Every structure is written in C-alpha cells, then in structure tokens.
Amino acid sequence: MNDWFAQAMALPVPKGHVRLWRLGQSGFLLRGAGATVCLDPFLSDMPGRVARSIVAAADMEGVDVFFGSHDHPDHIDKAAWQTLGRKNPGAVFIVPGLLRERLAQETGLPVERFLGLEDGRTLRVGDLRFTGVASAHEFLDARDGRFPYMGCVLEMEGTRLYHPGDTCLYEGLAEKLRCAGPLDAMLLPINGRDGARYQSGILGNMTFQEAADLAGLLCPRLAVPTHYDMFQGNLEDPENFTRYLRAKYPKQRFWIGKIGEYTTLPEGSGLDG
Length: 273
Fold this sequence. Notes:
By secondary structure, the protein is of the alpha/beta class. Helices cover about 20% and strands about 25% of the residues. It is globular and about 45 Å long. It starts with a helix and ends in an 8-residue tail after the last strand.
C-alpha cells in the first residue's frame, strides 16, 4: 500500500469529526470514525497534467464510497474506477442518475454498485447522507429534469460538507444550499472561465471572486478553494481567493491544503495535523 495512503487510513479519527485530505483538482479523501469517502479522485496519468497523483488506484483499499460529480476524466476517472472497484469490492459509486447505466457499462463494473443521485434527492449509505445539488458547468444542461453535473451535500459524523465538482453560479443555488442546513465546509472551484477556454472545449467554473462571495453569503465554518492546480491554461492562484476573502469577509475561515495534507472538520476542533 502507498505510504501516504496507508498513513491516512491509519490516522485515528475521533467520533464526531471528519478528516479531509486534498488529492488535487477537485479530489478529496474523507474519513470519519465509521466510513471512508473519496470525492472526484483523479488518479490516472494524462498528457498535460501538472500535478501527479500521490496515490495509485491499486493502492487504495478500504474506501466505502466513491463519488463522481460528472463525466469528465478529472472528476470521474473511468480507468481508475475499474481498479478501485476491484480493490474495494464492497464500495459503491455515486454518480448523476442520468449517467448511471452508461458509466457502469463503460467502467465494466456491475450496475448494482452504482447509485444515481438526483437534484434535491437524498441517498443514504449506512450513516452517510448524500443530497444532490445540480451543478452548472457553464450551463445546467437539464434533461427532463435530470442533470449530468451533480454536486452534493454530504452529511458525515454530524458534519455537513458541500462538494459541487465543477459549477458556475446560477439562480437558486444559494437557496438550495441554505435549505440543506448550516455547512461545515464548502469545496469551491475557483478557476473561472473565458471565451478562449470555452472555444477550446474547456468548460468553466466560478471565478475566485464568485466562489468567495458564495462563501461570504452562506458562512460555512470553512471555505476550501478547489480546481486550480492541474492543467496549464486552466490554473488559478488560490491566494487570490484568500486575499479577496480577507478583504471582503474577514471573519470567514478558509483552508488551502497542499496535495496530501489534511484538515479536520468541524474546523476549529483542535485536531488538525
């Protein structure tokens, strides 16, 4: 087993807390006292990738849930999911319900291992709760009321975390998140968007200002910038996000972890390493 991953899995997690490790791009590993969850892990080598994965799919064992927000390789890494499914035979894979059957076929995993998440609906996996929050990757792209880009509010060990994957702001997003309840953490993409990237096929996200304003509006215990470090031409400096937060929302706490580092939720628990 990879040394970093083995250490992460061996680190004790007190009941009522969640350890949150940063994997790069929008990828995170979360561990509570009773479950381990992996959000949007991007593990495969790819041309143009700036930051290499700190762990191989073959070295990840003991994960209970893999969450994939949408069918782009830096969020649903289908080549890695084949291996992850084999190494974690009891794990389930949560994906947008619209994509469930196709992704099962393309990964070669049994469709019974896939759970489809829908906007506003909640899935329970043991003591975990995943509530779907549609994401707008430039557009919402609704298809008969279903969405190919699906974030979630994850409730785990009494903490509540928002993970959108990729999203721009859209009317109603803040209200959906308010209805989910007070948030302990928001994982917010900050790389932005522009016409040149869109024309080249790179779909955009919130700017760092928009992400900071959403955090300032909803006041999570911790704001975490994401999606800024993986591909040339689609990067952002997370310090821009934090400088904007400090200037406009000085009471808002934030965390910028290097790849492989962790923090502990709820923030301020005194358990950070």
